[in-house]
Specification:
Layout lengths: L6 E5 L21 H7 L5 E5 L4 H8 L3 H6 L3 E4 L5 H11 L1 E12 L5 E12 L3 H5 L5 E6 L2 E7 L23 H6 L16
Parallel strand pairs: 1-2
Antiparallel strand pairs: 3-6, 4-5, 6-7
Main location: membrane
Membrane topology: Multi-pass membrane protein
InterPro entries: P-loop_NTPase (IPR027417), T4SS-coupling_protein (IPR051539), TraG-D_C (IPR032689)
Length: 196
């Protein structure tokens, strides 16, 4: 490969192809992944880690799970109720400042009134609020920007939706057919072939 190209790889638990061995799955330990994810960005490689719960990452990578998550610039939470994920998300969202006004009245021989004012912090979203979040909503966190609650995108409204298998079964990508075409590439005089 010549020139600067950006490579993208995804790791998750749901195979998108017929044969699971053809899919890069996070649930087989990727050796030294905590070091790899910290350096690949400088090599123009992106990694998308897809999980149902952060506890899955911790189960596999133990102490390195926090390093892996720390090297991800963005997080998209689509919903869920797993305790570890919800607790960490609630803590990451942070707190907002609220003003509290308390009034008091004392009744005795003379009436007296009091007004107490204080500022306090409240979680932006409590764990309970996250677990019952509307299924049409998501939380997106990007490094350097405050997290925000957003509507999930309706993929059926995308201009290229008609190219997906969901729209038409004939659009399915046949990995076996694609792999068997490998001897049919045209090579010109400027092509360099390197075997590893």
């Amino acid at each position: 490969m010549m020139g600067n190209y950006h490579a993208r790889c995804g790791a998750g638990e749901k195979p998108e192809v017929v044969k699971p061995e053809a899919y890069l799955s996070l649930f087989g330990l990727i050796p030294k992944f905590e070091k790899l994810i910290a350096t690949i960005r400088s090599r123009e490689i992106s990694a998308s880690i897809i999980l149902q719960a952060q506890s899955q990452l911790k189960a596999i990578y133990k102490d390195h799970a926090d390093t892996i998550v720390g090297n991800c610039d963005s997080t998209l939470f689509l919903g869920g109720k797993e305790k570890t994920t919800v607790k960490e998300l609630s803590e990451t969202l942070g707190k907002e400042t609220i003003d509290l006004y308390n009034t008091s009245e004392t009744r005795s021989n003379q009436k007296s009134f009091g007004l107490n004012y204080q500022k306090t912090g409240k979680e932006l979203m409590s764990q309970d609020e996250i677990t019952v979040m509307d299924g049409g909503k998501c939380i997106y966190q990007l490094r350097g920007v405050r997290p925000f609650l957003s509507d999930k995108f309706d993929i059926t409204k995308h201009k290229n939706y008609k190219l997906l298998e969901d729209y038409d079964e004939r659009n399915v990508f046949d990995i076996e057919k694609y792999v068997t075409r490998k001897g049919k590439a045209k090579i010109n005089g400027n092509t360099v072939i390197t075997r590893l």
